Amino acid sequence: MKVEGDGTALFKPLGNIKTWNAVNERIVSSNHEVSGVIINDSVESVNAHDYDKIKGIPIEGMFQIGDVFGFDAHLTETKLKLSGKAIDNSISCANMLKIIRSEE
Fold first, then answer.
1. Residue 71 contacts residue 17 (beta carbons within 8 Å)
2. In whole angstroms, what is the distance from residue 7 CA to residue 12 CA?
3. Is residue 94 helix, strand or coil?
4. 15-28 pLDDT, tens per residue?
5. Which of 2, 42, 62, 100 would be 10's cystine partner, CB 3.0–4.6 Å?
């Protein structure tokens, strides 16, 4: 990661994350001290691996070289619903395991 003078961060690719999936996602550092959002820094739309067109904007704290980030995937629970990243897949997998175990 490269930190610019204005506090924004430029990213290096890690894994096969498509940039169009990362744009507008909240990110949080591994120690939970820094959070931000990934934006498209170009007037053009991003393609799968256009890492030069995206950057991170800090929301809480300041980015530092060497920070490790992941997508903010916290679970939110209210009286009426649960929401979180891929919660529907997680619940479906848990239910499938219950069914498989009950058939044994």
1. no
2. 16
3. helix
4. 778 888 888 888 89
5. 2
3-state class percentages of the chain: helix first, strand second, coil last, to nearest 5: 25, 25, 50
Give me the phi and psi of 58, to 5 degrees please: -70, 140
Rounded to two decimals, what is the model's pTM? 0.65
- Supply φ then ψ for residue 98, to 5 degrees: -60, -45
Whole-number Å distance between alpha carbons of 37 and 22: 9
Q: Which helix (H) or strand (E) holds 88?
A: helix 87-103
- Residue 86 has a pLDDT of 65
Contact indicator for 39, 24 with CB cutoff of 8 Å? yes
| N-terminal to C-terminal alpha carbon distance within the chain | 49
